[in-house]
Amino acid sequence: MIEFDHVSKVYPNGTVGLRDINLTIKEGELVVIVGLSGAGKSTFLRSINRLNEISSGEIRVGGQSVTRAAGRQLRLIRRDIGMVFQNFNLIKRQNVLSNVLSGRVGYHSTLRTMLGWFPKPDVAIALEALNRVNIREKAYIRADQLSGGQQQRVSIARALAQEARVILADEPVASLDPLTTRQVMDDLKRINREMNITTVINLHFIDLAREYATRIIGLRAGEVVFDGTPEEATDEA
Ligand code: ADP
Ligand code: ADP
Asked: Which residues does the UniProt record annotate as the domain ABC transporter (predicted)?
């Protein structure tokens, strides 16, 4: 589903973000990327949908080159990829339903959807997505009235409404308390299983990675220093 072929990233100031990464993430995997701050986790994740341009190599998603895609082709690849961020990236002053519907911008290129007005079937899809993360009853509440955990579930619902086949989550629980962290990780795991959505999550807690991942990739200074199952990920590794 996601292929890295000799991928390197050097930032303009000379900092190495990624160094010759070669790996394949299969459909339905739940991969957790672990590593210390500065290891390259964020660079790795953001390269996949080209929020970040790589310096050399090639990345493919669903067999299609992200690296060489442009215009409409890139938009179509990006539609398959839902992003979940540490700070949720919701539109604070809009309600939950509108936020989830924003995942469907790009499905219609009409002025209406750009203004935030969607056909009824889209609203049904958005409500179903909210149902999956158990916050359907919050649909008409303003996003900034929700707790952090609820906001993160809204952002997961937005990815579902987008009908993404891949979810990329960049430190999705970094600003949440331990209990809420579990709820959000449980949601991501459940969605990964039930909908076979390929999921890549950046975390800096190895214990959470062991608990939730089907595969753990360890980064250090932009290089893969571990790639294996949670069982293989001992503290020595
Ligand atoms: P992580 O997500 O594991 O904390 P990052 O991918 O954010 O790591 O960063 C990897 C390396 O690239 C770090 O050394 C970081 O300082 C550097 N880096 C990240 N973004 C930039 C940037 N825009 N310009 C220069 N260096 C950057
Ligand atoms: P009103 O628009 O009068 O506030 P509605 O019940 O029609 O009341 O909508 C409440 C909110 O639900 C709106 O602010 C909007 O964000 C969202 N909403 C409802 N239906 C749609 C739709 N078809 N397309 C986009 N957003 C919708």
From this structure: 2-237
ipTM exceeding the 0.90 mark: no
- β-pairing, 30-34 with 198-203? parallel
For residue 9, the ligand closest to its alpha carbon is 1
User: Using CA of residue 188, residue 79, residue 137, residue 96, what is the dihedral sign?
Assistant: positive
Identity (one letter) of the amino acid at 97? Answer: L
Positive or negative: CA dihedral 95, 163, 190, 213: negative
**Whole-angstrom distance between the N-terminal and C-terminal Cα of the chain?**
26
Reading the block at residue 80, the tokens are 């398959």
For 136, other C-beta atoms within 10 Å of its C-beta total: 16
Distance 221 CA to ligand 1 centre (A): 10
Average pLDDT (14-41) is: 97
Q: Which atom of ligand 1 is nearest to the CA of 202?
A: 2
At position 205, the amino acid (one-letter code) is: F
Banded pLDDT at 235 (limits 50, 70, 90): low
The model scores a pTM over 0.90: no
Which residue has the least CA distance to atom 23 on ligand 2? 118
CB 2 within 8 A of CB 60: yes
Q: Tokens 């069982």 appear where?
A: 231
12/103 Cα distance (integer angstroms): 32
Atom of ligand 1 nearest to the CA of 36: 3
The answer to whether 48 and 31 are in contact (CB under 8 A) is no
**What b-and-e string marks burial along 194-225, b requiring 16 or more CB atoms within 10 Å of the CB?**
eeebbbbbbbbebebbbebbbbbbbbeebebe
